Amino acid sequence: MGGGWATSISKFGGIAGPTIGGYLLASGLPAIRLFALLACCPAVLARCALGIGVAARRNAPARRSPVVQLASPEP
Q1: Rg (CA), the chain
Q2: Looking at per-residue confidence, does 31 or 1 come out higher?
Q3: What does the buried/exposed string (b/e) look like for 25-42 if buried means 16 or more CB atoms within 10 Å of the residue's CB?
Q4: Domain annotation covers residue 63
Q5: Cα separations in angstroms, 49 against 23, 24, 25, 45, 71
Q6: pTM given for the model
Q7: Is 65 a domain residue?
Q8: Which of residues 64 and 2 earns the better pLDDT score?
Q9: Which residue range is the domain that position 28 belongs to?
Q10: Has residue 67 been placed in a domain?
Q11: In total, how many domains does the chain have?
Q12: Is residue 26 part of a domain?
């Protein structure tokens, strides 16, 4: 089941990657600026994922830890 998903994603990437690359090269940006823009993409995606994770934890109901009662020493 996972092999089928991996194959379909790789085919999508095989078509979309060169297409997006062609559009970026045709945009007329200098190469140094283009590489800087592409280097920022993983950091931006990681920041978005982190923000979504933090927001999800804030909105989640609080989990109560089990109360452990210690036995009191007998007099």
Answers
A1: 25
A2: 31
A3: eeeeeeeeeeeeeeeeee
A4: no
A5: 26, 25, 28, 6, 45
A6: 0.49
A7: no
A8: 2
A9: 2-58
A10: no
A11: 1
A12: yes
Q: Report the alpha-carbon distance of residue 65 to residue 75 in Å, rounded.
A: 30
Inter-residue long-range contacts of 44-50, CB under 8 Å, 24+ positions, other chains counted: none
Q: How far is CA 63 from CA 2, 34, 48, 51, 53, in A?
A: 33, 46, 25, 21, 16
Please report, as a single letter, which amino acid is at residue 29.
L
Predicted local confidence at residue 72, as pLDDT: 62
> What is the model's pLDDT at position 68?
60
Condensed to tens digits (0 to 9), the pLDDT of residues 24-47 reads 889 988 988 988 888 898 999 999
**Side-chain half-sphere CA neighbours of 45 within 13 A:** 6
